[in-house]
Sequence to fold (324 residues):
Amino acid sequence: MLKEAHRFGFVDEGSLSADTTAQELPMGYPNEPGILRGLAQRCGRALTQLHKRGVQGLDSALAQVQTILRSVKEHHLFATCTTDKRQVLPRILREVGELMVQTRPLVERLATPLDRVIRSARLRLMAMHEVIQPLMGQIVHWVTTGKVAANKIIHVGIPQARAIVRHKAGKKTEFGLAYRISRLGGGYLFGERIAANADERQMPLKALAGYRAIFGPQATPELVVYDRGGDSTLTRQRLAAAGVKDVGIQPKGKRPWSVAEAVREQIRSERGRTEGVMGTLKSNRYRFNKPKERLWHTLEMAGPRSILSFNLSKLMRDVVALTR
Fold:
């Protein structure tokens, strides 16, 4: 579609501006007791399914699930100060650890089930065992340091969603899926989901790779724009070696710009447009943020769908304007 927009002359391939953002997901604020409650609830549903299928030896695990849920309710309702909450949370962690110990033999015992419901319940328990291993250390890190661990899991049902540490003014941490959004001259977008807390110094080079995937391996924009997060001597050198005429990466601190003053005005304009278009993408019209999908195999396509919807709307507007 971008190639067709380019063929009609709606895309200016001479300019490429990129930035990273977070796709917020439809979930509550990821506090530690809430995350652990979600894990206990999923284990409880799996154990209930197994109980209905006649699997024996589940009473202690089911009781442990209820113990965790009561402790989480105590944390939310009765732990009124930070000291009280810091006392209840370690207890919840111990209770969750005990639940994992109780369910591990069950997972091994049901290794070759024939019943579809038993297979599904076992897979859910296995998923919870896999997610608790890194999550437990991340929560302990928060309890001991008071800081959110990079790449912290924020939802046990969607472990791909992570805490993205930004250190922005007023918003040090974002929660969800990390994306790199690239804007071409003319306003059209392409994007890609990236690893949470990926090295931003590599993002201008990744944006150029995405650009060449669309326009050809030898295609090169005259101007590449990125904010100060992408500032790196090596990145600048590699962009220049790739044939980029103006490397419009905002320098950190008092480092000098690598472009003339006239180009800087264009860079500031492109940066503002990129920020604006990401805000539009997150609006209720395109629903990049908080999509309605809940399952991962549909949720992972929600971001590309929003970008496609934005581009299609823009293409239709440009076609209508051309025919007038």
